[in-house]
Design brief:
The protein is α/β, with parallel strands linked by helices and 673 residues long. The chain has three domains: 331 residues, no CATH class; 179 residues, no CATH class; 117 residues, Rossmann fold. Helix content is 41%, strand content 11%. The protein is built from 24 helices and 17 strands. Strands 7-6-3-5-4-15 form a six-stranded mixed sheet. It has a six-stranded parallel sheet with strand order 10-9-8-11-12-13, with helices on one face. The protein has a three-stranded antiparallel sheet with strand order 16-14-17. A hairpin with a 2-residue loop joins strand 4 and strand 5.
């Protein structure tokens, strides 16, 4: 139901031919040849940036919130004077309004990205990319501007009605409603149409429309001029009510809440109002816009210019009649909407711990779009995350976390609702395997081609690296993959070609076994650290007779004190790391990674690969990985899918396939990090 421009990554809405639609309105962006092309270098003297096109506090970065310092100081002063919280202080209410309004946009962002709720009611199927996230990083600039304008008004004699706070006055509601319909809507409509004409569009509005897929936070992305126009539309009804002596603090909060709620809803890219409501009360179509209505405008830029009320578009002939069929298709998940279809590849992950659970794409975008790290700012949210952990433990099932497109194919990440520590509880083993089994069977029914198991979901002690499920369900059409063949390949290809000896911990694990058998065939001496002679001998006998001599069992770390290549598959304490000679490089496949205590040594990261450059809609980082980088087991599943291999990759790693999988990964554009 949608076309995607592979060059730009932006979606184009496409209504199915079965829906009879009248032609869309003519373009309202005439004379565009006189515009500055978007991206013109405005730093040169001959093309200086026009006024009100950039934010004056842009250079402050995150310190921009220091602009609220005077307001905070005013609140502190009044607190001291009154001996308690100054509930009648406008300065306090302005700060509270800033926080509450920000939470409204955050709420809609969170809801819109909870794919387990909304994936069937999306308007545009494409995902947001990192370019858009970076462009919209300071989306709350308009809230800062409006708060500072509010502080200026409060501190001036323009509105004497502000001096005496009234909690509630019904007259003010009537005045505000009349002014919104009679002033704010027409002014915004006319100003918006003007912004779509040359030269204003290229100078002030093109950046806003550069976002390919709208999200709630996109509503705040714009230039100071756009924000001032929005402030006028929002503030005029309030100013009128206070000038007539009918203003109240309740009106300020309610008006701001409704205004921001509708703005965030329109940009959410998720339909929430049933088309049956519009069928039952047709005039509502001209009173309340929808996310589909706004998405048509945002992508095609040729109609639907209203603030909230499509009646003005209807009156001036700029209403796109396709808005309502698209709204119905999106809400019902029918063709022509943006419902996510059946994925062809699924990466089945699990939550690592309580802190990292806040790194999900539907929480804080500024966190999920960067590699995970523990921040002090997350500590206040820990009790909330702990509560969600208990909730998921009791009554949750596998859910969709994120998605991206690779060469036109939909890839999704699902998560088992279990945390890392639960995998080591004997009583939880059966329940976890049941969750994984249900996810595999669900993927099989949906028509998923490859499902890749992540981290502890393929633990040997848990399910034999996925063997349990393949043996129990021999007729599975979905291919179950642990991806560790590529993990081994990544680690092995990091080892310099001139290395003659390595020290291997976790030597009898699935990965340790494969690495040891591969290296001994290259005539590299492998010091296998293990206390189990039985396991060592079993692995040694798997090697060809002429290479068995290169596998050596060691039981003490002192045996590696002259070896500068350590391959770590088991946690190393600082004392154990001290046995490594200076200049040692630690290759790792242990989770979590060891801490680098030695300054005279180097430490590798977990095995990972960068996805091909033509990936689209990738908007979050995979745990501690950099942008566009995924764990090697994830990449292994992608390669399995792209190659169209028809076998399951479960249980022990086939050493003979390590080079085959590595070459296939490079062939398809995956790159080592």
């Amino acid at each position: 139901g949608q076309r995607r421009d592979e060059g730009s990554g932006q979606a184009q809405l496409h209504i199915p031919s079965s829906v009879s639609l009248s032609p869309g309105p003519p373009s309202c962006t005439s004379d565009t040849e006189h515009c500055f092309p978007f991206g013109t270098d405005l730093s040169r003297p001959e093309s200086m940036a026009p006024p009100l096109s950039s934010w004056p506090w842009a250079s402050l970065g995150q310190y921009k919130y220091m602009l609220f310092g005077p307001l905070v100081w005013k609140v502190v002063q009044e607190w001291r004077e009154q001996g308690g919280l100054p509930l009648g202080s406008w300065w306090l209410h302005l700060l509270v309004l800033f926080a509450v309004r920000g939470l409204i946009y955050q709420f809609w962002f969170t809801y819109g990205n909870m794919l387990f709720f909304t994936r069937r009611r999306r308007v545009v199927a494409d995902g947001v990319d990192f370019r858009q996230i970076d462009a919209e990083w300071d989306w709350d600039n308009f809230l800062i501007l409006q708060t500072l304008i509010g502080a200026t008004v409060v501190n001036s004699p323009l509105l004497p009605g502000l001096r005496q706070l009234c909690l509630w006055d019904p007259r003010g509601w009537a005045v505000a409603l009349l002014l919104h319909v009679g002033f704010s809507e027409p002014v915004f409509y006319l100003a918006h149409r003007a912004l779509h004409r040359a030269p204003l569009f290229a100078r002030y509005h093109a950046a806003h429309h550069s976002s390919g897929v709208t999200q709630a936070l996109t509503a705040g992305f714009g230039t100071p001029l756009e924000s001032l126009l929005l402030t006028l539309a929002m503030g005029a009804p309030l100013a009128g009510a206070f000038l007539l002596g009918a203003g109240s603090i309740g009106l300020v909060y309610a008006h701001a809440f409704v205004f921001d709620y509708l703005r965030a809803m329109g940009y959410s890219n998720v339909e929430v109002v049933s088309p049956r409501v519009f069928d039952a009360f047709p005039p509502l179509r001209y009173i309340l816009y929808t996310p589909s209505y706004l998405s048509l405008h945002h992508l095609e830029k040729r109609g639907n210019f209203c603030l909230f009320m499509p009646a003005l578009d209807a009156a001036f002939g700029t209403l796109d009649e396709r808005s309502w069929p698209l709204q119905r298709a999106a809400y019902d998940g029918a063709g022509g909407g943006g419902a996510l279809g059946t994925p062809e590849f699924v990466f089945l992950a699990h939550v690592v711990d309580i802190m990292s659970s806040m790194h999900v794409p539907f929480a804080l975008r500024s966190l999920s779009s960067t590699p995970f790290a523990n921040h002090f700012i997350l500590l206040p949210f820990w009790p909330v995350a702990f509560g969600f952990m208990l909730l998921m433990w009791c009554c949750s099932k596998t859910f969709v976390v994120s998605f991206y497109y690779l060469r036109g194919h939909l890839h999704q990440t699902w998560s088992v609702p279990r945390y890392g520590f639960q995998y080591f509880l004997p009583a939880a083993k059966k329940g976890i395997n049941h969750q994984i089994e249900l996810a595999i069977l669900r993927a099989d029914r949906m028509g998923v081609k490859v499902l890749s198991l992540a981290a502890l979901n393929k633990n040997e002690a848990l399910n034999g690296g996925g063997t349990l499920f393949v043996s129990k369900h021999p007729d599975l059409r979905v291919r179950v993959v642990h991806g560790n063949t590529l993990t081994a390949a990544v680690i092995l290809n990091e080892i310099p070609s001139n290395v003659k000896e390595v020290f291997l911990t976790g030597a009898t694990s699935k990965l340790g076994r494969a690495i040891a058998l591969y290296l001994c065939r290259k005539k590299i001496r492998v010091l296998m650290f293990t206390m189990s002679s039985e396991r060592f001998v079993k692995i040694q006998r798997e090697a060809p007779p002429e290479f068995q001599q290169y596998l050596v069992q060691v039981t003490k770390y002192q045996a590696a004190q002259n070896c500068k290549t350590w391959i770590v598959g088991k946690w190393l304490s600082p004392r154990e790391q001290r046995w490594a000679p200076a200049g040692t490089h630690f290759h790792q496949f242990v989770v979590p990674p060891i801490i680098g205590f030695r300054r005279d040594c180097t430490y590798g990261k977990l095995a990972a690969m960068r996805l091909p450059k033509d990936v689209r809609g990738l908007s979050s980082c995979e745990y501690t990985m950099e942008r566009g980088v995924v764990h090697a087991c994830h990449a292994g599943g992608v390669v399995h899918f792209l190659e169209g291999w028809d076998h399951h990759e479960v249980g022990a790693i086939d050493v003979d396939r390590i080079d085959v999988v590595w070459r296939a990964a490079l062939k398809h554009g995956l790159a080592p990090v």
